[in-house]
Specification:
Layout lengths: L1 E7 L2 E8 L4 E5 H9 L3 H17 L3 H4 L2 E6 L5 E8 H10 L5 H21 L1
Antiparallel strand pairs: 1-2, 2-3, 3-5, 4-5
Length: about 120
């Protein structure tokens, strides 16, 4: 798996490319931070509450969440909740944010990058 940082409106979103699945996985906390304009700790707390609410509602989003190793702010590789592109779109629908539509457009572009690179090889 290949770790990579992508940027949306000057905020970092950690990603991992899974070559076997040919799919990007995105850090949930980073996405929550982008959509809510919260810092990392507040975004973690927001995700914790949202994850519980979604779980109580029986949402598959929490079930489909993977824990993958990504580089943390301290430079160490740490497990973090991640979702594939489809899961991220569901997550975005769960968070009221004026950035939702621009983020979906960014996600479509970010998700196609690796596929385009592969086709050009």
């Amino acid at each position: 798996m290949e770790n990579k940082i992508k940027v949306f409106e000057n905020k970092q979103v950690r990603t991992v490319w899974n070559a076997e699945e040919e799919e990007w996985y995105f850090s949930v906390v980073d996405i929550v931070s982008v959509l809510t304009d919260n810092d990392y700790q507040d975004a973690r707390n927001y995700w914790k509450v949202l994850r519980k609410r979604l779980s109580d509602e029986g949402s598959e989003l929490v079930t489909n969440c993977n824990r993958l190793k990504m580089k943390a702010a301290d430079g160490k590789m740490r497990e973090t909740d991640c979702l594939d592109t489809k899961g991220v779109l569901r997550l975005v629908q769960s968070i009221p944010s004026p950035k939702a539509e621009p983020f979906k457009m960014w996600l479509a572009q970010a998700g196609s990058e690796r596929r385009d690179d592969k086709e050009n090889d």
